[in-house]
Amino acid sequence: MATSIVKYTGNKNTKAIHIKSKSIIETDAPPDNNGKGEKFSPTDLLATSLASCMITIMSIITERENIPLEAEAEVTKLMADNPRRVSEIHINLKLKNFNYTDKQKKMLENAAYTCPVAKSLHPDIVQKIDIHWY
Question: Which residue of 13, 77, 101, 118 has the fewest CB atoms within a 10 Å radius of its CB?
């Protein structure tokens, strides 16, 4: 079964509808590629998906381990030319340390580095992940 339907809505914009939940994501071309940058661009979503995936996998682990999770990620996407593509994704991941054991910290860090999106991205895309415990 299909995951989503994506429709062109004009002016370099799209509307993606998740079939199961009916949630919507709209995109716009970025200013550096003839757009207005009024919404996420498709490449913004690619980079943001990496951080979202990391935190989602961590949440699965913390739920299983019955430990709390407080996480926030700042995402930076860098583009390259010839061909135009995402060249680097930088993630500054802030994790609250709830007196985790070293084993628990290692499990969470491993989740960040090995989430499905991280493993799905082309190896030419640099993934610079900085984890900050506070």
Answer: 101
